């Protein structure tokens, strides 16, 4: 009787192995599910980035607002009859005297 019980227990364990550790087992499914969640999150981020870039391209093709904004920001563009005002950070360090770049 004891031998039958040991054999049945061993068979039960052998049947459980593929369920937990086999090719389509629970651990493999859990790992693939985690990988899928990571891939879907990355896809969402990339879709948002692509939408932003597509919007910017569309604006550059059709409108002048984006071109003007870039010219102002990157090139310091100022229109006629506009006054340029630059606000400096009061906590910024001042350049030392004589550091204007001219040599005496």
Percent of residues in beta strands: under 5%
Shape: rod-shaped
**Number of beta-strand segments:** 0
Percent of residues in helices: 55-70%
- Give the end-to-end Cα distance, rounded to a whole number of Å: 108 Å
Largest sheet: none
Contiguous helical run count? 3
Mean pLDDT: 82
* Structural class assignment: mainly alpha
Uncertain segments: 100-104
Task: Give helix and strand order, one letter per element, not per position.
Answer: HHH
Report the C-alpha radius of gyration, rounded.
Answer: 34 Å
Describe this structure in words.
The protein is mainly α and about 100 residues long. The protein has a domain at about 10-75. The protein has 3 helices and no strands. It has helices at about 1-20, 25-60, 65-75. It is rod-shaped, with a radius of gyration of 34 Å. The N and C termini lie far apart (about 110 Å). Residues about 100-104 have low confidence and may be disordered.
């Amino acid at each position: 009787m004891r031998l039958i019980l040991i054999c049945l227990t061993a068979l039960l364990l052998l049947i459980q192995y593929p369920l937990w550790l086999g090719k389509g087992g629970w651990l493999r499914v859990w790992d693939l599910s985690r990988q899928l969640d990571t891939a879907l999150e990355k896809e969402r981020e990339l879709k948002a980035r692509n939408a932003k870039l597509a919007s910017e391209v569309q604006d550059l093709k059709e409108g002048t607002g984006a071109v003007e904004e870039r010219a102002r920001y990157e090139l310091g563009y100022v229109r006629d009859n506009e006054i340029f005002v630059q606000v400096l950070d009061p906590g910024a360090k001042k350049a030392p005297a004589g550091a204007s770049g001219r040599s005496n």
